Each structure stands twice: as structure tokens, then as C-alpha cells.
Amino acid sequence: MKKIEAIIRPERLAAVQSALGEAGCTGLMVTEIEGHGKQKGVVQQWRGEKYKVELVPKIKVETVVKDGDLKRILKAIIDNARTGEIGDGKIFIYDIEDALRIRTGEEGEGVI
Amino acid sequence: MKKIEAIIRPERLAAVQSALGEAGCTGLMVTEIEGHGKQKGVVQQWRGEKYKVELVPKIKVETVVKDGDLKRILKAIIDNARTGEIGDGKIFIYDIEDALRIRTGEEGEGVI
Amino acid sequence: MKKIEAIIRPERLAAVQSALGEAGCTGLMVTEIEGHGKQKGVVQQWRGEKYKVELVPKIKVETVVKDGDLKRILKAIIDNARTGEIGDGKIFIYDIEDALRIRTGEEGEGVI
Amino acid sequence: MDMKVIIDTIWVLVTAKLVFFMNLGFGMVESGFARTKNCVNILSKNFIVFAVSSLGFLLLGWGLMFGDGNPFVGLKGLWFLSGADNSPASGAAYQGVYSAISWTDVPLFAKFFFQLVFCGTAATIVSGAVAERIKYKSFILFSFIMTMIIYPIVGHWVWGGGWLASKGMFDFAGSTVVHSVGGWAALAGVLLLGPRFGKYSNGSINPIPGHNLSLATLGAFVLWFGWFGFNPGSTMMADPQAISHVAVTTNTAAAAAIMSSTILSWLMLGKPDLGMTLNGCLAGLVAITAPCAFVSVGSSIIIGLVAGILVVLSVIGFDKLRIDDPVGALSVHLVNGVFGTLCVGLFAQDKIVGVATGNGLFYGGGSKLLFAQLTGIAAVGAYTFIVSFVTWAILKATLGIRVSLQEEIEGLDIGEHGNSAYPEFLIRKPSHAFLGIKDDNL
Amino acid sequence: MDMKVIIDTIWVLVTAKLVFFMNLGFGMVESGFARTKNCVNILSKNFIVFAVSSLGFLLLGWGLMFGDGNPFVGLKGLWFLSGADNSPASGAAYQGVYSAISWTDVPLFAKFFFQLVFCGTAATIVSGAVAERIKYKSFILFSFIMTMIIYPIVGHWVWGGGWLASKGMFDFAGSTVVHSVGGWAALAGVLLLGPRFGKYSNGSINPIPGHNLSLATLGAFVLWFGWFGFNPGSTMMADPQAISHVAVTTNTAAAAAIMSSTILSWLMLGKPDLGMTLNGCLAGLVAITAPCAFVSVGSSIIIGLVAGILVVLSVIGFDKLRIDDPVGALSVHLVNGVFGTLCVGLFAQDKIVGVATGNGLFYGGGSKLLFAQLTGIAAVGAYTFIVSFVTWAILKATLGIRVSLQEEIEGLDIGEHGNSAYPEFLIRKPSHAFLGIKDDNL
Amino acid sequence: MDMKVIIDTIWVLVTAKLVFFMNLGFGMVESGFARTKNCVNILSKNFIVFAVSSLGFLLLGWGLMFGDGNPFVGLKGLWFLSGADNSPASGAAYQGVYSAISWTDVPLFAKFFFQLVFCGTAATIVSGAVAERIKYKSFILFSFIMTMIIYPIVGHWVWGGGWLASKGMFDFAGSTVVHSVGGWAALAGVLLLGPRFGKYSNGSINPIPGHNLSLATLGAFVLWFGWFGFNPGSTMMADPQAISHVAVTTNTAAAAAIMSSTILSWLMLGKPDLGMTLNGCLAGLVAITAPCAFVSVGSSIIIGLVAGILVVLSVIGFDKLRIDDPVGALSVHLVNGVFGTLCVGLFAQDKIVGVATGNGLFYGGGSKLLFAQLTGIAAVGAYTFIVSFVTWAILKATLGIRVSLQEEIEGLDIGEHGNSAYPEFLIRKPSHAFLGIKDDNL
Ligand SMILES: Nc1ncnc2c1ncn2[C@@H]1O[C@H](COP(=O)(O)OP(=O)(O)O)[C@@H](O)[C@H]1O
Ligand SMILES: Nc1ncnc2c1ncn2[C@@H]1O[C@H](COP(=O)(O)OP(=O)(O)O)[C@@H](O)[C@H]1O
Ligand SMILES: Nc1ncnc2c1ncn2[C@@H]1O[C@H](COP(=O)(O)OP(=O)(O)O)[C@@H](O)[C@H]1O
């Protein structure tokens, strides 16, 4: 099993989410994070002083998939998360040693 | 060392947390996430229109444990996170290459 | 590639962030988490009753780095996150199987 | 047209508006003291309760309260203010069926509007104590009965020329009629509802912090402001000496109570708890409500100081008794409503602004007045508690009064209303917020 | 100095202050009903709009509205209240160029201040309907024109001794002059702006929940409170019978509308929606604004009940028509402004508090009054909509009225003001909050 | 009973209530402009400060301010309003020791309540400037001294028949007596406290955004509303011409200041900053407070425009001077309090509503009045700053006035009160919120 960790633009979440659904991967975790990279932060002001907020809002989407599904699901994410502008984000892939379903206690690829 | 990543119901956090304490695993990280899986989202309304919130609130509990403690701690989590209803969540297990304690700079299994 | 996952004190984030920048590692993810460890939680009160908040606010900083940069970047984090008090946090290191840049679709170490 | 009538009408209406505004204060204090997941429900209750009161008191409440009748209930002109009435003619010149309130020279609708906002206050007090677990529907029904029947009958006894008035009991602006009545009705509801899930789990008292102290403070300020309508307005005539005196006693008692509740919580808990300071302010205001026109400014300080202490002790006390009152309504309105009514018997100074109350115990008047006050407290308490208890019990047996455990845990906002108060803010998940659940096994 | 003048001046100023306070109410309802990312922008619009009105109405608006002139517009003493005027002299004793409002015996500045706060209300109504997409600059300019020209001319027709007044049309406190004028101007703006991005994506209506129902409820309470200045104050003289009557009809209509809107939303949607309850309250208040002094308390219940139903249906209806009104301003102010004006023709009872309106249709007065009301509704609607539409169109062609799509998605707070309303709170990221975007491909 | 007395008493009490309500406004503006972690502390300070004032001013303040005595301080009837007084008897008929305020024909308690709310305002102004670092205990003690001694003595000079009054200095509603006194006391505190940690780190000015602009806007609206009590009420008699005139000058100055501060911030910063717009409104209100009854509406526009510009420049200026004022209290109350007092000397028109001020410089009155104003500004400034500085210094040397660095970083809510304002909302962690810390090495 592999864990896909995708950092995407918040406004792309909905599209990615439904694409993942169609790609047959329903299980996912969504975390609100802030990111820093090439993309510039936004300038704000407060009673006369300007200031830069360096960290930009991003969404981390995590899903654990069977090794076989990896390629397909990566494609689904990339196609729907991409805008072509700086700030589209990255995808990282980890190896998962094991997975369990709490409800049943069962273990292994079957649970995902 | 292994990293245990458990997605649980928010209302089970307290129970899981104290169970982990008893199981001798004090160090943990708690992250507020939203999940999607078999469990249905909730329907809300706004001035005449209904809408479905697909993502359900979940808590991600992460803890890094010595290989030897893995089984015991998994059991502690499962026993306390389970309700038997859909939505109980999953547990994923990763391999950790190394760990450091910032305060002392020491490295390896000892730090956890 | 390695993923560095550092749990630090919120008030150290700014220092760590700029140190990482200088260390040439601009890409990172920041997540607001709550941690539990040796550090004690804080006691609050509500209309006559005291209560303890066990979980203490922490920041999780994640960055994926080339294997070669690992040592240098770990040092940058530890130097800037350390206060010497209990609660400074931990750093965990994972192996990353692969990385992709959504914007371009390119794959491998190059993307980070 | 008689100038006096015009002036008095302006005074009555302006102060009545301030009292109406207290609905906002209650709404904000109570939602601020509750959890996010129940915020919409509390806002809804506090918003609709005045609509309910407006209809209930118009339909029947006014008639039962002020209609001529026997010492226990009004009988004439019961429905819809339909009785004969030649207001603003007053005193001897008055002809009509609402003679108990014919002493003031304002139009009937001015009298009604002023009395309505007081009735509404009694009803809204209940909302906070039963919060975070009561069914919306059942609360609405109870409020109807409260404003149509329960409150007006007590009102008749004290302000409608009923038997307590004849007994020489004095309650200037309603420590008993409004606040303790609200408090007794709330107590009955709280006992039948039981505590919120997790509040008293395995032997420990689990504090459940309110979600928004900015709102709560805003609400307390608004209530303090509204009280300048509540008390001075209760002259229902613009008597300069009286209204000025009442404004100062009212404010001074609030100030003293704020100080004593803050200092006591500082001493008892190590730190000055804002929640206690806010409750202290309201406690002082409730306590001075009955005596505000009968006591000196000096006495108002003492009354306030004691009120502030009482509220801190009773908030803690009710918890010890496992009586779960999320916002402290019982400590504020019931305990201090009773205390304030007593204070008339202790601190009253005859004719201090004209009203012939006779002197209280501390001013050489002996126990006569005090005894009348005690009679009133006991009678009103017994009546209101019993009738409310029965009403709640019937609702419990029929519609049910408490939401399901699951709904309570997930929050009444989604369960009862399908809304969330702050859909975009990230909120700690229920159990998290729900400290009570900590040592609990679902 | 004549006591009557003093008393009436106090009454006019105190009620005017309450109406001013409604600006807070509108600001909180509208920002509470909008998303976090646009909160600062809405607060800014609602805050500056009264400043704009104050200058616009002072500069020219007052003169056009109350200056002596022809049936369509004031011509004398146009600029800066500069016309001759010997107020508080009134009636026959009055000498000056603002004779249309010489019937009340208060100083010129008291008249001005009272009329100003009404003008400001009309302008602020627009703010909510065009929220979450309009350019700050263009809104400010429109508000200037609205308060300097558009509103005052209608005002002249009805309250400035103009042709509608002569036609025997009655609008006591401004269901038409204030609320429907605000509504028509808003409608024109909404049509030219188009819906918010994502609101109606691929055929479905995507609800966009407001970010803060505590604020919205607070605002609704403040508006209800302010209405006790708006309606009773419109006597502009402290006539005890009239102001008491108006206070009660106003409150009763609000109460009835709260109940009917809540129950209807309960039946239609399965759960009582707080947003609908709040809109219902405002709908009842708007509907009773024109008839409050001409109808009985009984009628006010019926008017309120219908208003509550109308607002629920029209909120849903406007959505079906793809007319995107984030806060329901059209349903509240336009629909019920029109309905309330009609009600005068239906429920009026001659001289119920002294004004000789003649009887409405339901009281045997035939259709004469009703017809006058219809004429007023139609004329005011046509005029206001057209003039506003042209104004908006010119702004659109020149400055532009809508922010860029990217700014709209990222939020107007950063884009227009460089501020964020809650910089420390963790907020669900835009698209998240932005349910509309779900089935959308950016 | 004399009608005039009744009417004037109503006017004085109603306006006093509005001024009391400003406490809410200050509380919301100041907490909204501060960070979440200090919210409870600011709410607590702003809530308790009026309780403290109520007791301090009752105990001694009133006596020092209005007791008959020498030109510098009251000496008779010092404690507890205990002096002889036959109010509402006024003018020649008055017998008592508070003759400086015997010109108004209202009861003593009405006079006291009205003056109390002004005293409370001066005290509450301090709260904002010293926010986010001051010890709760020390603030409470300072407020006692402020309201018992510091404020009343200045009050005696100007309103208590003291030497500045004799010098012909005019301050109608308190630009100097209330606002600049509050401002000077705040400045002394700010200088002794020093800036908040991280505000001026390694040479750069780090903005620290407020946590809740909805609350801040709400507060500004409430203050604007309250000012309609503050200024028109200061007639302390219902003179129709005067109160109407004052209502309009007050509102017009606010409107003008809103426009100028918004436009200036737009030009200087590229975007219209809501924080500046809100401060601008308050600046205009403070500036018109002294001259509101002495100048024309035309002049009030100019005064407002300048005030709006002054506040923007001084907010930025104080930052450049490394004087850390989290809410802009110095720019609003001190700078514009001084400016407004000067404006009397510049724009006054003799007897414009009856008061014989003589003409100001711009109206051919020469520099006589201007000079009197300057004397007042200088004397009050020197006195208040020095006495406050000494008071703060003593507190610093004894109890300490600043919390520990760690407490400041973690927030005063936990440290001083053990509460958190929004325990369920996810808040960016301190340092995060604390942008100042960015370039800082703890
Ligand atoms: N090396 C990295 N480690 C962890 N997260 C990263 C890394 N590089 C980028 N990211 C995440 O991806 C987001 C987008 O990256 P950025 O460089 O801004 O644009 P792009 O991905 O299009 O090059 C960043 O905000 C950050 O959260
Ligand atoms: N394949 C997966 N990858 C990541 N998270 C998952 C996966 N499957 C489930 N989850 C997480 O577990 C939670 C519970 O899963 P769900 O299917 O709803 O119930 P159950 O775990 O009882 O089958 C989901 O909300 C989601 O956050
Ligand atoms: N075994 C662990 N697994 C996951 N997170 C841990 C573990 N141990 C510590 N942490 C994280 O590190 C933070 C600091 O640890 P703590 O024991 O309090 O201080 P220190 O790291 O200085 O010993 C904790 O709040 C927790 O979030």
C-alpha cells in the first residue's frame, strides 16, 4: 500500500475530491495547512502599516491506495489540481507497512 | 521505530488518549482533520436551500513507538476508538528512519 | 528523498522558517497541531471550576529534502527550535518513495 | 392635551424600549456562555421567546394580570385587551376594568407595552438555564404557557392589586415578579431535564466553558444598559426625584456587585474570572430591582456587595448539588431575586422617594415589612415552582423535553435547526470542546 | 419656551437616534449573512454609507425632498438647508420654504436629523443585496446619488407635499418611501451585477451560508429595537395615543411574522431555519411600517403573519429566478415594502389614531384608498427602478461595479481593503467555504 | 411639579444612559483591535472600569469636581454627595454646596449620574492604550485614582466653576475635560509601560492586527450612537434649538471625518483601511465634542475633515515615535481632544445657540477665545500628564504595571484570568498571530 500526500490549492479541493471518487478512491483525509514555496504570500495592512503573510493557505489531501491503483489515482489528482500557475503544489508518496480498520480490527490491503 | 497514524472519531479522542497513557505511550500529536469514506456527511440548510457537507470531522492521532510496543499500542487504540459503527476510522503504520529530540539533540529510539 | 517532520514550539516557527530559508530549503508545510508529552498542560477556569487542558499547542513543520541535504537542514531546525526547556519537541524522518510537481507533472528528486 | 400625560407616555415608552433591548443582552450572554454547537439553538430560543410573549401576553396574560377580579386572578377584559378602559384618564377619573394600573396617566397601549417587555424578560430567563439540551418545540410551548398564565397570575398578586399587594408586600421593579418567577420556572425545568451529558461524569464536576466571552460581555453591558429602563421606568411616571434616585441606586448596586464577585472569585480561585464578574453585575442588578426606589444609595452598595458574593457561592453551590445551569440563571435571577425582595424588608426607608413602604428592619421598622416580603417570596416560589413543574412534566410526558443523546453530543444546531453558527470557522470537534467527556466511556 | 415644542423635540431626537442605531443592525445582519472573506468589505460599506448619506442629504437631498416647489420636486432652499425657516413655529405661524414639514413644531435641525436617518436607511438597504461582489468605490458613489437625488424625489412625492400625497396615498413611516425605494434600487444593482460566482453553477442553486449567525441575530434584535424609533417616531410629535398604538402594532406584527416564517420554514424545510426567522422578523416590521398608525392591533397580527409567509416564499422565489440576494434584502424590503403599502388600502380604519385616511377595503372604505396606494407603489417602483438602473449602468460602463473573478474568489476583504476580519481565527479555505464551487470547474 | 424640571430630568437621564452605553462601544472597539490571547483581559478591564468609576466618583470625585471651594478644587460636600443641596431648585433659588452645577433644574442624583458617565468615559479611554501588557490589578487601582482625584480636579477647573472657567475657556461636552484627560493619562501609562513585545523589533515597526473587525465596527457604531447622548445631553437641559443643533453638528463632523480618514488612508496606503475609517469616525466625534454647540454645521464639516486627517497621520506618527498604542486611543482622544478644544477658539460664533462664547478667530473674534482655549489645553495637559505619570510610576515601583514577558507572549487571558475568550475556535498559535515576532530571536 502507498500513501499519497497531495498539497493542493484550496479552490481545487472540490474538483480533486470528486475526481478521486470517480477513480474509485473514496477514503481520504483533508487537512488545512499553510505552505511556503516559490509562490509569493499576500500583503495586508493594519491601521497604516503593511505586512506580508508569507504562508499561503493550502490543503493537504491524503489517501492510502493499493499499489496497483497508484498511477491512476495520481493522474486523477494531477489533472484536477493543476492550474499551471506557480503554487499548484506537490505530491509525495510513502510506503505504508500496514493498515487496520478500527471498526472490524481487520488488517492489510483489504481495509482500504 | 514505527509511526502509528490513527484516524478516529472526535468523541473517542479522550478515551484513546488516556488508554495510550496507560499503555505507556505519552507522546502524541493530535490534528483536526476532515475525512471522507463510507460514512455519510450531514445535511444542513441555509435560508431555504439544503446542502450536504461531505466531509466529516475526524481526529488524526499520531504517535511514534518502538517496534516492540507496536502491537500493544495498536490494541489500546482499537479497543478505545471502536464503536462498531461505520466511521470508526483507520490506522496506518509507517516505518520511521530516525528520530531526534530537539531539546537534547539526541538521536534514535531512545528519544521516544 | 527524506521527509523531515518537526514538532516545534509555535513561538519558534518564525526562527525555524527563516533558518530553513537560509539553508536553501524553501518548500515546507506548516500544520497547527496539539501535542502531548512530558510537558504539562495549562490550567484554566470557568465560572468557579478549574480544568486542565492536557494538549499543548504545537506546530508541525514538514519538508521534503534531498538525502544529501538532510544533515544540514536537521541542524538548522534543531539550532533554531531549541530552547532547552521540556516541550521543545521531536523530529521524525521518513523515507519518501517519490515526489511529483503538480504544475508540471515532473517526477523525482528534481521537483523539490 | 395634558402635558403630564405626554411626558409620562414618552418616559414609559422609552424605558420600555430599553427593557425590550434586554432580549439582545440575554441572547448574547446565554449564547456566549454555551458551546458553539448549540449557539444557533440558543439564539433561536432567545429570539422567538419575545415573539411568543408578545402574542401570549396580548391574548390572555394582560387580562389575567391587570383585569379587575379577585385577589388571585383578573377576570374582566381577559382577552386581547378588550376590556373597557378610558386611559390615559387616571385615578378617580379612570373608568374601566384595568383599575389596578389606573394610577398611571398613560394610554392603555403604553401600559400594555411596558408590562409586555417585563413579561418577556421573565420568559427569556428560562431559556439560559435549560440550554444545550432542551427541545426547541417544547421550549416554545412552555414559553406560551409561561406568558399567558404562569407569570400573569403572580403579577396579579403583586402588581395587579392582588392579595400580596394587600398584604403590604413591595416589589418595585420585579425581583420577585419577574426574576424569581423566571428563576423558579427555570429550576423546575432544569430538575426535569437533568444535567447536560458529561457535566457530572463519574463523580467529578466537569466545567463546560462558553464559546464566546466577547458576546457574553457585550450581552452583560446591554443588560446593564437595559436595566436603566427596567428600574427607573417602573415608576411608570416621570417623577424626577424618583427616577434619578432609582438610576443611581441601580447603577451603584451593579458596581458594588461587580467588585465583590470579582474579588471573591479572585480570592477563591486565584484569578479574577470574567464569567463571575459578568454574573456578579447581573446579580447586583437583580437584587436592587425590588428595593431600588425604597432604599438609600448607601444601602444599594451593601445590597450589591452581598449580591456579588451570593452569586459566586451559588454558582458553585448549584454545581455541587448537581443542578446544571449552563449560564448561571438560577444564581442570578432566582437567588438574587429572592435576596433582593428580602432587602426591601431590611433596608427600606419610608417615603425615601415618596412610596409609603414603612421602614425595614434595619431602619427601625421592625419585622412587619420583612414578614410581608417573606410571605410573598414563599407564596410566589411555591406557586411558580409547582405550576411550572407540572407544565414541564406534561410536556415531558407528551412531546418530550430533551433531545436525544446523540443530538446533544453532535449539537442542537444541526439537530434542531440544520444550521451552524459559524460554518467557516474551524471549531474544535465536539468531544474536544466537550471537556466533560474526558473520563467518560460513551 | 413652549413645553410642547420641547417635548416634541425630545421625542423626535430620541427616536431619530434609535433609527440611526439601525445602521448597526443592518451592518451586523448583512456581515453575519455573508462569508468571512467579505466581512470587512460589508462592514466598511455599512459604516461609510451613513457618512455618505449625512453629507448627501445635507448638501441637496433635504432641499429636493422638503423644499417648496412643484408636485414632483422641491425647488426652494435646495442646498444645505439654506432656505428661510422659522421652525419650531408650525402650522399657520410657519414662515419658510420647507412648508411641507411645517406641521410639526420642532426646530429645523431636529426635522433634518430625523429625516436624515430615514434617508440613510434607504441607502443602507442596498448594501446587503449587492454584497460579496460590488466594488467599494462604486457603491460609495451610488450611495451619494441615492441620498442626494433618487430617494429625496420620491420622498417629495409622498412626504414633501408632492403629487402622491395629493392623490391621497398614505405611507406612515416609509414602507414605500424608505424600504421599497431601497429595494428597487437594490434590485437594479443586483440585475446589473449578476449573481455571485458559483451561486448558480451548472443548473443547481448552491446555498452560500453566512459566516456568523450570532452577529446576524444581534443585528436583527438591534433592528427590531430601532424600529421602535422608526415607526412611533414618525409621528414627529409626541401624541400619546398615537405613539403607544404604533409601538404595539409594530411589535405585534414583528411577533406574528416571526411565528409564521419560522413555522413555514419548519414545514417546508423540515427544520426551523434561524435565517428565515430573522428575515421573518424584519419582513413583519417592514410590512407594518406604512400601516402602523392606521390599522388595529388585530390587523397588525394578520399583516405580520402574511409578511412572514411572503418573505420565506420570496427568498426561495428569487433564488429560483436566479436573482442572487445574499441577505434577503429584496424579500424583506422590496416585497414587504410593497405589501405593507398595500395593507393600508386594505386594513386602514379611519382616524384610528386621528389620521383621516378613510377606511380600507376590508373596512368598507371601498377601493379608493387601495387604488391610491397602488398608484404610489407603481409610480415609485417604476421611477426608482429606472433611475437606479441607469445610475448603476453608468457606473458599470465607467468605473465598473464588479470586482474581478479572482478577487471575488479570494475575497473582497484582501482585494478591496487589504484587511481580514479575523486574522487569527483558522477559517476554512475559500473554496471550502465556497460550497458553490463544488461542481464547478475553475 | 414643574414640567420643565420633569422634561429636563428625562432628557438628562436618557442621554446619560446613552453615554453609559458607550462603555460597550469602547469595550468592543478595543478588544476587536487586540489579539485573541488578550481579549478576555481587555473585556474585563473595560467592564470593571465603570464599576470602579461609579464607586470612585461617588465616594470623592463628585465632591472635588462640583463642591464649592477654591478655583482649583472643590472643598464642600466632598464625600458621598453628602453636601447640602436643594436641587432641582436652580439658579437663584438654589441652596447648597454644589452651586457650580446649580444652573440646571434637575435633581442632584440626575446631575450625579450624568457626570458619572462622563467620568467613566475618561477612565475607559486609558484601557485601550495600555492594552495587551498591563497588569489587571494595577489598571484597576489607577482607574480608582483617576476617577476619584485626577479627573475631578480638571473637571472642577472647567465645569466646576474653577479658574479655567473664569479664564473664559469653553469645552462644551469635554474634548478636553474627558477626552484629552483620558488621553494624557493614557500617554503617561504607555510611556512607562513601553511597547508590546515584538512591536518594534530590530528597527522595524511590526503591525499587530486586531483579532475581530466585526466587534470593532460594532463598537464604533455604538460609540457614534452614544455620542448623541454625550454631546446633545451636555446641555443638561432640553433646549430644543441647542440639542437639535448639537445633534447635527456632531453627526456631520463624524461623517466628514469618516470620509477624510478613509480617503487619506486610500491615498497613502493604496487601499481604504477599515481600522482607519473607524478611528476616523471617533476622531471626528472627539474633535466636535468641545465646539458642537458653538459652531455652525458648515464649520463642523471642516472640523471633521481635519480630524479625520489628523488621526491617520498621528496613528502613523506615534508608531514612528515608537509609542505603542494598540487601539489608537492617543490619536483619537488626545490629539483630537486638543484639536477640538482649539476649534472653539477658531470657529466659535457668538450665541449660535445661545451661549455667549464670543467669536472665534475665523469669525473676527480675534485671539482672545483662542488664547483661553490654549491656556486650558496647556494647563490640563501639564497637570494630567504629570499627576498620571507619578501615579503610574508609583504603581510601577510597588505592584508593578507590566506582566511578565512569558505571560505577555502566552497572552494575558490565561495569565491574568485563567480564561480564554474563544476556547472552541482554532486560533493561530501565539507567535503566528504575533507577526511582530517574525524577525525576532526569542
Ligand atoms: N520540498 C517541499 N517539502 C514540503 N512541501 C513542499 C515542498 N515544496 C513545495 N511544497 C508545498 O507545495 C506548495 C506549492 O509549492 P510552490 O513552490 O509554491 O509551487 P509549485 O509547487 O507550483 O512549484 C508549497 O506551498 C508547499 O506547501
Ligand atoms: N483509504 C483511505 N485513505 C486515507 N484515509 C482513509 C481511507 N479510508 C478511510 N479513511 C479515513 O477513515 C475515516 C473513516 O472511514 P469510513 O469508511 O467512513 O468508516 P470505516 O473506517 O468504519 O469503514 C474516513 O473519514 C477517512 O478519514
Ligand atoms: N513518541 C512521540 N510520538 C509523536 N509525537 C511525540 C512523541 N513524543 C513527543 N512528541 C511530540 O513532541 C512534543 C514535545 O514533547 P515533550 O515530551 O513534551 O518535550 P520534549 O520533546 O522536550 O521531551 C509533544 O507535545 C508531542 O507533540
Task: Please explain how this structure is put together.
The complex is a heterohexamer, with 3 copies of chain A (112 residues) and 3 copies of chain D (442 residues). By secondary structure, chain A is an alpha+beta fold. In chain A, 20% of the residues lie in helices and 41% in strands. Chain A contains 2 helices and 7 strands; from the N terminus they run βαββββαββ. In chain A, the strands form 2 sheets. A 4-stranded antiparallel beta sheet of chain A has the order 2-5-1-6, with helices on one face. In chain A, strands 3-4 form a two-stranded antiparallel sheet. In chain A, a hairpin with a 2-residue loop joins strand 3 and strand 4. In chain A, helix 1 (13-22) packs antiparallel against helix 2. The mean pLDDT of chain A is 92. Chain D is mainly α. Chain D contains 15 helices and no strands. Chain D is globular. The relative contact order of chain D is 0.15. The model of chain D is unreliable at 431-442 (pLDDT under 50). Classes of the chains: A alpha+beta (112), D mainly alpha (442). Chains D and E meet through helix 1, helix 2 and helix 3 of D and helix 1, helix 7, helix 8, helix 9 and helix 10 of E. Strand 2 (28-36) of chain B pairs antiparallel with strand 2 of chain C. The structure holds adenosine-5'-diphosphate (3 copies). One adenosine-5'-diphosphate sits between chains C (7, 35-39, 56, 58, 86-90) and B (27-29, 62-64, 101, 103, 112).
